[in-house]
Write a structure and sequence with these properties.
homodimer, alpha+beta, Arc Repressor Mutant, subunit A, Chorismate lyase, 2 domains, six-stranded antiparallel sheet, three-stranded antiparallel sheet, 11 strands, DNA-binding
DNA sequence: TATTTTAACTTGTATTTACAAGTTGTGTAT
DNA sequence: ATACACAACTTGTAAATACAAGTTAAAATA
């Protein structure tokens, strides 16, 4: 499992882990660039590359003459993130329930998005999940990803684990961007039962296509979000 | 007006202008890094800083061993991330109706977001608009901006003009990012009348705080979006 | 001719060095 | 004690250099 990542990425991973694990308090200072150089045995440009990536991903804020301030990024669920009523939603309260285990199947004839030849010919991995905060259903998502070079994927456990985190840690697939369509719709009977709300209540509806660092590898999702007690939160 | 920008920023501005002006076709190659070094008399790290910024802002895509490919410029602060309604719907069909002319008032006691001292002490400019596509109301927005160094603002005309465009062209204020909260709610009587839908119909509700290139200058908006016939589209 | 190898590009990673510019606390002079 | 100057930090910008790794097309080979 020893991967030969570039040094700046290694450092990025280390610092990211430290920040997420709470080793640095929110608002506190990261060690100075020169200190990081000394500790990790790399030069300043390398350290700066790592810090730059952390800035880009929202983990720290840099201030000239001062230092790098740790800014724990909002609880993110993929690109999205949700913010709850007052009390923060820790990962520990977010549960994932698999409604339909990942299975390989063909793409539907008229899919919402245009597929590349490779994607279409490889088939898709289909996956339905219901995600709960404090045991209350918050959103229901349907995911499609091309079945390209994802060994053992269908047999991995998704319980209480982000799909994106799994893709990142096991296959080095990272989301680089995407596009999405948003609507507010009335909950159908099926959706209202899943999200435990009344039929006809407003539901956030998202349709999204995510790009990754793998050329021609996209993730297609449809999401129904119960915004009664929670909101979708995002920075840009 | 000769600003002493860093060299990499100067190069960034030059290349950005060239891309936007169409000097490089979409999909074509930018000169290689070494060529840019020679032409502009800087070293490769400097060129790379400029290109990195162009990648970050979505103007080019870099491919190792190949080069930098020019991408179509997105960039218009819309409803969702960067690139939204204005570009999605087409500016020409979008009309703006001012429901409440910009007026100066104090900030409410318990505002949704935390304000800086300067913001609070300066008061706010309050502004309500209804925006229409094909003469059908699509969204209603309430905007608050701090009354800091905005001469003649309340007397300017907003009809059929983007608030952001006005801020940029008259005050050199540009949106650099922000955060937002999203919900699907039932339309109240007031909202349903404004958007010409039925009371209780689902409406997209957005609350957002936008950051600008002016330190400590934020724009706070609340938006009600009628997603019956339109969706909010965004790339990220 | 078809295939493989190689050379000449491209961007990616990394070191070393230097100085500029912003921030903060310490020390001195008032 | 207060105000100011300065020193000692911090990050920002920039150069010169080297090699690694991916891409492409020309050249050599079968």
């Amino acid at each position: 499992m020893e991967q030969k990542l570039p040094q700046y990425k290694k450092l990025y991973e280390i610092l990211r882990k430290h920040i997420l694990s709470g080793a640095y308090e929110e608002g506190s200072m990261l060690p100075s660039e020169n200190e990081l150089c000394a500790v990790h045995g790399v030069t300043r440009p390398t350290v700066r590359q790592a810090l730059e990536a952390l800035v880009r991903d929202g983990y720290i804020i840099k201030k000239q003459g001062k230092g790098s301030i740790v800014k724990k990024p909002p609880q993110d669920i993929g690109i999205l993130s949700i913010s709850g009523t007052a009390s923060a939603i820790g990962q520990q309260y977010l549960k994932t329930q698999i409604l339909s285990k990942p299975q390989i199947m063909a793409w539907p004839e008229n899919f919402s998005y245009e597929l590349t030849d490779v994607e279409r010919e490889s088939g898709r991995i289909y996956l339905e999940r219901l995600r709960l905060v404090n045991d209350q259903p918050v959103f229901y998502d349907i995911n499609n990803l091309p079945n390209i070079n994802l060994p053992r994927f269908t047999s991995r456990s998704f319980e209480n684990k982000s799909l994106f985190e799994l893709l990142r840690s096991n296959y080095q697939i990272e989301i680089t961007g995407g596009e999405q369509k948003l609507k507010a719709i009335k909950a159908t009977k099926q959706i209202s039962e899943l999200l435990k709300i009344k039929t006809g209540d407003p539901v956030l509806y998202l349709e999204r296509k995510l790009n990754t660092n793998r050329e021609g590898f996209h993730i297609y999702s449809t999401i129904y979000f119960n915004s009664e007690k929670h909101s979708i939160f995002g920075t840009f």
